[in-house]
Structure formats: C-alpha cells, structure tokens
Amino acid sequence: MEYLIPTQTTEDSLRPPVHTAILPIGSFEQHGPYLPLATDTIIACAIANAIAGSYPVQHLPPVSIACSHEHASWPGTVSISASTLYTVIFDIHKSLQQSGIPNLALINAHGGNYILRNIVQEATIAAPCMALFPTNEDWASARAAAGLTTTDHEDMHAGELETSVLLHAQPDLVRTGYTAGDHIVNERSAFLTLGMKAYSTSGIIGRPSLASAAKGKELLASLVNSFADCLAQLSQ
After folding, report:
1. pLDDT along the chain (236 residues), means of 10
2. Residue 155 maps to a domain
3. Which of 129, 184, 206, 221 lies 20 to 30 Å from 96, alpha-carbon distance?
4. Quick one: the chain helix, strand, coil %, rounded to 5?
5. Cα–Cα distance, 223 to 54 (Å, whole number)
6. In a domain, 13, yes or no
C-alpha cells in the first residue's frame, strides 16, 4: 500500500520548483462485498500517481476520510462533516501558499464530497488558484476512451468504473463476487434524504460484471491527458 503515501524528500520537492499541488481526496465507505472501504481513496491516489508521473506537481498524501453520510447504514463506513472537510482543504491550501506553491488541484474520487465544488468556487474569487478534478466532462471522456458500457448515472457505486480501476491499479484488493454483483436502479429521486440503503441492499449500484483491468488502464490514461487543461487553467 506504499503508493498511497508519496515518498519524495524535501530535496525532491525543490527540483524543479512547482506551482501546483495535487491532493487526492477519497472516502472510507462501503463498496459492496468485493471492494475495500478505501476504494475511493485508492482511486484518487491512482489518478494522482499517474498525474505526478506526467506533470510538474507537488504530490500530497490523501484525505482518506470525507463525507460518506449516505453510506452510514453500513458497518465500516466513517465520515467527517462537510464543514470539517472545508476547513481541512483551506488549511492545506493556506499552508501550500505559505511554502510558495500558490495552486491546488483537488483530485476527488468520491461523488458525495459535494462541498468541494463550493470550496473551489470560494477559493477562486480573486484568482484561479484551486481546481476540482476530474470534472464530469473528464469522467465522460474517460468512459468513452475506455469503452465503458454503463453511463455515469447507471454506474453509481462499486460498478464498472470503480471495479475496473482497482482491477488495473490494485487487483489484489478486489475480492471474488464482482462478476455476479450487478444491481441497477436508475430512479433515485430521494437519494439525498433516504441514502444508499433505500436503493441497494448489497451496497452496489452498477454493473461490476463488465469491469476489466484493461478498461481501468484506459480510464487512467484518459484522465492524465485531461489534466493538462486543469493545469492550464491554474496557470492563467
């Protein structure tokens, strides 16, 4: 699990000087019986690792517990409040700026971290110094590039996309059972009020049976390419 923690030294951070840091943000929540509680954090780290290998950025360790209140009915899930996540992000950004790195890209892999959008909007009132990545458009491009069958709405949780990324990045963490785990429920109008339990007894919404390591590899490759636009926005 060493890949979850960046291993650069102070000297490494000086060569060359960088202007943008990347912060992986995940969660610690149920992902059905075959994916680990840390799935979103693992995915955020996989994206960040790939980005750090292609762009001049300061690679930060992940925020591994965030806003997972919609999964609170399942054992193992742990959350922090939106206000706590808000404070953590702003404190990290302030510390980076004090050390000479003005920009921060939030590499988010948990859809329930809604507050991150507001954080970015507030931080960038005066100047484009923070960004949220991947955007919905980035994910859509990645899905198309990887040939995913399901849509982002259908493939909400522990489905084709998430299982594919883990099959590529950390296949040893994927347990048996995902090939028979499909569960589709496209009408979820009361999700914010009722949570995940109202729509899935397994904790799955999606088609994990369609997942493959090859799709996971292409998903990450597409996201690395898309990050160029994010970095350009922060360089304005």
Report:
1. 74 79 98 97 97 95 97 95 98 96 98 97 96 98 98 96 97 96 96 95 97 98 98 88
2. yes
3. 221
4. 45, 10, 40
5. 11
6. no
Residue 234 tokens, joined: 């922060």
* Distance (Å, whole) CA 3 – CA 69: 27
Residues in Cβ contact with 123 at an 8 Å cutoff, skipping those fewer than 6 apart: 90, 93, 104, 129, 130
Q: Which two tokens stand for residue 42?
A: 């693992």
Stated pTM of the model = 0.96
- The tally of domains found in the chain comes to 1
76 is a domain residue: yes
Q: DSSP state, 62?
A: P
Distances (CA, A) of 42 to 14, 24, 218: 27, 9, 17
First to last CA, the chain: 36
In a domain, 217, yes or no: yes
Instruction: List, for residues 205-224, the tens digit of each pLDDT value.
Output: 999 999 999 999 999 999 99
In the chain, the DSSP E strands lie at 20-25, 58-59, 103-108, 130-133
